[in-house]
Amino acid sequence: MSKTSAAITAVGAYVPEYVLTNQILETMVDTNDEWITTRTGIKERRILKGEGKGTSFLAINAAKDLIKKRGIDPKDIELVIVATATPDMKAASTAAFTASEIGAVNAFSFDMDAACSSFLFGMSVAAGYIESGRYKNVLLIGADKMSSIINYKDRATCIIFGDGAGAVLFEPNEENLGLQDEYLRSDGTGRAFLQATYGGSSYPITFEAIEKGAHCAFQEGRTVFKNAVFNMADATVKILERNNLTKNDVDWLVAHQANKRIIDATANRINLEEEKVMMNIHKYGNTTSATLPLLLNDYESQLKKGDNLIFAAFGGGFNWGSIYLKWAYNS
Ligand code: UT7
């Protein structure tokens, strides 16, 4: 009897209209287009504007895009997971609000946060529910309004991040397509190098913290960079070795979009041709939980049933890893 695997069967996405270009950033902090482009590969990012609009706004629109494209009835959705590092509020679940707004009234829902690896780890969680046999579909949304925790006076951080959301549907597959293997890791000693210190339970928000911008994301870029380069490449090599794959078996590298140099380093470590590396960092920057589904959405028309996709991510925590997934449909 063949084992039921968990496949991605639909993709949707949403990015806000406002485009924050490198040229506009030049007017806000001491930076320039040439520095940002050569050090990160980013040319522009999207920013969500509007009073009271949070991550759920992005998540809802990405989910609606998927629902429309796939033509499913939201009442049939059984579980909604919102992978995010920037929930709408501290105490009320962003996923519950999102599920209600899209009409997924028969679903249960929850948020999950593993910083920039939220969506990658979310794939593991979503697939687990399907593989268990207890659920026949899971809507996994990666969404972040990073601009809500960015200090636009900190040039080492503000140039990288943007806002956006992507959604995928996981369903059972009897052809052994979908998630094949995963290698996921965490190292909590990394949190010193990438965090938003104030606003959580260790350091509740204060007037002084807000004045200093200590409620915003801070990173020691160089340390994060070195760890990202090593661990994303290492996880990718491990997942290939464990599954007896060579670079010729890989159709696509789907890597977290934090810095083009980190993505290139991962691809170079396995000698992968540039045309097999999904890339959209130039237009969205680092959207944290949304980078991987935004890539899938941008490349969906080029993906073929049976393609071998290698996902890789690294982020705050530190959290990182790699997932091997076989694509399940032609669009
Ligand atoms: O999503 C996961 C989390 N984040 C990441 O994965 C990000 C990882 N880190 C990075 O991508 C890079 O470290 C950055 C893009 C953040 C910085 O690039 P870098 O090549 O590591 O630069 P650096 O921090 O080593 O700084 C080099 C120089 C410094 O000047 P001095 O000390 O050499 O005079 C910085 O002050 O560049 C300066 N610098 C800037 N210059 C112009 C830093 N930020 C900027 C800027 N514009 N925006």
From TrEMBL:
One of its GO terms (molecular function) is beta-ketoacyl-acyl-carrier-protein synthase III activity. The active site is at 116, 256, 286. Residues 240-327 form the Beta-ketoacyl-[acyl-carrier-protein] synthase III C-terminal domain. Homodimer. The last Arg residue of the ACP-binding site is essential for the weak association between ACP/AcpP and FabH. It catalyses: malonyl-[ACP] + acetyl-CoA + H(+) = 3-oxobutanoyl-[ACP] + CO2 + CoA. It comes from the Bacteria. Keywords: Acyltransferase, Cytoplasm, Fatty acid biosynthesis, Fatty acid metabolism, Lipid biosynthesis, Lipid metabolism, Multifunctional enzyme, Transferase. This is Beta-ketoacyl-[acyl-carrier-protein] synthase III. GO terms for cellular component: cytoplasm. Residues 257-261 are annotated as: ACP-binding. Its EC number is 2.3.1.180. SUPFAM superfamilies: Thiolase-like. Pathway: Lipid metabolism; fatty acid biosynthesis. Its main location: cytoplasm. It comes from Wocania arenilitoris. Residues 110-188 form the Beta-ketoacyl-[acyl-carrier-protein] synthase III N-terminal domain. It is found in: Cytoplasm. Catalyzes the condensation reaction of fatty acid synthesis by the addition to an acyl acceptor of two carbons from malonyl-ACP. Catalyzes the first condensation reaction which initiates fatty acid synthesis and may therefore play a role in governing the total rate of fatty acid production. Possesses both acetoacetyl-ACP synthase and acetyl transacylase activities. Its substrate specificity determines the biosynthesis of branched-chain and/or straight-chain of fatty acids.
